[in-house]
Amino acid sequence: MKTLRTLITGVLVASLTLTGCGTIGRTGVGAGIGVAAGAAAGAGIGAAAGNTAVGTAIGAVVGGVAGILIGRHMDKQKQELEEILPEDTSIEIVNEGQAIKVTLESGILFATNSTAIGENAKTSLRSFAANMNQNPNTNIEIIGHTDITGTVEYNQGLSERRARSVRDFMLLEGVDINRMTTLGKGIHEPVADNNTIEGRLQNRRVEIFILPNEKMIEEAQREAETSK
């Protein structure tokens, strides 16, 4: 993962969000492809999704033909995920066609103040892990979020532990640990109003971002060069 960041400074390819709560119907967003060479660095998932509080700013999209090729891979993976994840899962293409955002019904991940993954969530995570194993040219960043109930310090720790819990489960399902990193955001990136029960449910979530590894980027760049 460290080598990947050195090569592309966190080029964003996909995001997979497993929310802590909330029910959102399945939605597909049309894939726009980033064709401008050298798209501006720092384009974040939040801006791409139309909500600057969503996720974390991982990096720029890949420009030019290479970006189109990566986008096509993500379109294919989105279709695969739609076939194996629950019907109430929202799956969207964002970030100029190079990102996937998947939102699972929040209540199936964790009980209140718990880092233990629920039994229903395990089924969905197993399916997701199987898909990741079938798409080995990607790496994963897992980010935990909480609502504002409790202290800032407690929520920060809880978000970190939940992200690690998801990583550890994925590891048991055969996903290489070298493909995964974890991060906790605590209360700091809400996606809904913390003054309402429904909003707090949506804010308790774990987001998984899928990024290209060196091989995917290099292969896309080589193919782009030969197509000139």
Describe it.
The protein is α/β, with parallel strands linked by helices. It has a single domain (about 1-225), classed as 60s Ribosomal Protein L30, Chain: A, CATH 3.30.1330. It contains 7 helices and 6 strands, in the order H-E-H-H-E-E-H-E-H-E-H-E-H. The chain has helices at about 1-10, 45-50, 65-85, 120-135, 150-170, 195-205, 215-225; strands at about 15-20, 90-95, 100-105, 140-145, 180-185, 205-210. The chain has a 6-stranded mixed β-sheet. Strand 4 (about 140-145), helix 5 (about 150-170) and strand 5 form a beta-alpha-beta unit. Helix 3 (about 65-85) packs across helix 7. The longest helix is centred in the N-terminal third of the chain and has 21 residues, at about 65-85.
Brief write-up:
With 228 residues, the protein is α/β, with parallel strands linked by helices.
Mean pLDDT: 74
- CATH topology title: 60s Ribosomal Protein L30, Chain: A
- Unreliable spans are 1-17, 19-58
Shape designation: globular
Quick one: how many beta strands? 6
CATH architecture: 2-Layer Sandwich
Tell me the Rg in angstroms.
17 Å
Q: Which superfamily, in CATH terms, is the homologous superfamily?
A: OmpA-like domain
Task: Note the gap between the termini.
Answer: 30 Å
Q: Give the SSE order as H and E letters.
A: HEHHEEHEHEHEH
Broad CATH class: Alpha Beta
Structural class: alpha/beta
The biggest beta sheet, please?
6 strands, mixed
Domain unit count? 1
In what order do the strands lie side by side in the largest sheet?
2-3-1-6-4-5
Helix content: 25-40%
Total DSSP helices: 7
Beta-strand proportion: 15-25%
